[in-house]
Amino acid sequence: MARDTTDFRPIEGVDELVDHLAEGNKPRDKWRIGTEHEKFPFYVDGNAPVPYGGERGIRAILEGMQSKLGWDPIIDDGRIIGLVEPTGQGAISLEPGGQFELSGAPLETIHQTCREGNAHLAQVREIAEPMGIRFLGLGGSPKWSLAETPRMPKSRYEIMTRYMPKVGTKGLDMMYRTCTIQVNLDFESEADMRRKMQVSLKLQPLSTALFANSPFTESRPNGLQSWRGDIWRDTDNQRSGLLEFCFSPDFGFADYVEWALDVPMYFVIRDGHYHDMTHITFRQFMAGAARNEVPDGLPTMGDWANHLSTLFPDVRLKRFLEMRGADGGPWRRICALPAFWVGLLYDEAALDAAEALTASWTYKEVLAMRNAVPELGIAAPFRNATLREIARDVLAISRTGLKNRGKKNRDGYDETSFLNTLDEVVARGTTSAEEMLSAYHTRWGGSIEPVFMEYAY
């Protein structure tokens, strides 16, 4: 999230919180695709991490991008920490370890979102390459220890950094040493949200498997295909993971609100200052627990929107749905991830087929799949098959959905070609992580350094 929300409307009751989510309902002709991707900046000389400050640091890249694009700066305690397009059509932000993120504009087609990603990569290369900086498209930092990883001067991250070790063993790794590709998608009603939430929760482990791309940690194989996927198993299980209550046949906005109310907060913002609120839940906040702790210590709608942004389930509900399962990856994956989910969820026949395929999948089965995927990737078992076999069926459904959408580019091609990189994974039977591991043990000569050349933007 590029910029934390300031909305000073007071909260009168829980119904307003439910209404906030329901306001995301949109007619189908207003559905859009918002794609986000993160990447690791590094110095070409020595493959070293890039700090915030200095003439060749993250701040200098942001300032260069601001000059090039004319976007508005996002300032935190006097320091530039991101950029936002003046009309809200996209933003650039920093993750805790300097991961550089594009939060794309809400667009109508995968063709547009792919052009947007390619344009961003070209722009940031133009600014960064004269500084000797490139960007790495992986799901996990392959070389630097946590101590070697820079820390960005962003107030919410200071609070999270103090809090994470209290609630899990891998939260700091999540913050500082992972990257993702995500897509944000719309719904037209509570019933439509329910269908999409349930289908996408059940298929999120498959997405993790298909995009598995983080097999190295601190210059060695880590025994996993998606280290990032494993990290999410013990980051903060109060606010992340696979949400069992969402599997209920009558799941709705109010159920998500009730869950979110009982998750500890991270912060509230008053007069530009971030106040640590990790000791109370949002429900306690609404009951007046912070009345004497912070100025204007009663909750606002801005506080609620910010709280929703600090929840990390596999699929996150805000006024849209966020698909959160995929590792970061090469540029083709930036286009493939939204294509995969748009094909499944934005065509009625495809959604019907995906729902039918997964209808009998139980929470325990999906959780077991989720636990197996970080190590086994598409070879993870599911019932009497493997995820490779499941993937064939799911990709066929997604391809049909994209074909039915009929969104063609100027050359007459539809969106189905963006799935080709995932078709290759299934045809080979090996993930990107396994391909990297094979290279490490053969032509890379037991070194991870070539990854900075072969997987760089």
Automatic annotation (TrEMBL):
<keyword id="KW-0067">ATP-binding</keyword>
<comment type="similarity">
    <text>Belongs to the glutamate--cysteine ligase type 2 family. EgtA subfamily.</text>
</comment>
<dbReference type="InterPro" id="IPR006336">
    <property type="entry name" value="GCS2"/>
</dbReference>
<dbReference type="GO" id="GO:0004357">
    <property type="term" value="F:glutamate-cysteine ligase activity"/>
</dbReference>
<comment type="function">
    <text>Catalyzes the synthesis of gamma-glutamylcysteine (gamma-GC).</text>
</comment>
<dbReference type="InterPro" id="IPR011556">
    <property type="entry name" value="Glut_cys_lig_pln_type"/>
</dbReference>
<protein>
    <recommendedName>
        <fullName>Glutamate--cysteine ligase</fullName>
        <ecNumber>6.3.2.2</ecNumber>
    </recommendedName>
</protein>
<comment type="subunit">
    <text>Homodimer or monomer when oxidized or reduced, respectively.</text>
</comment>
<dbReference type="Pfam" id="PF04107">
    <property type="entry name" value="GCS2"/>
</dbReference>
<keyword id="KW-0317">Glutathione biosynthesis</keyword>
<dbReference type="InterPro" id="IPR035434">
    <property type="entry name" value="GCL_bact_plant"/>
</dbReference>
<comment type="pathway">
    <text>Sulfur metabolism; glutathione biosynthesis; glutathione from L-cysteine and L-glutamate: step 1/2.</text>
</comment>
<keyword id="KW-0547">Nucleotide-binding</keyword>
<keyword id="KW-0809">Transit peptide</keyword>
<keyword id="KW-0436">Ligase</keyword>
<comment type="similarity">
    <text>Belongs to the carboxylate-amine ligase family. Glutamate--cysteine ligase type 2 subfamily.</text>
</comment>
<keyword id="KW-1015">Disulfide bond</keyword>
<dbReference type="InterPro" id="IPR014746">
    <property type="entry name" value="Gln_synth/guanido_kin_cat_dom"/>
</dbReference>
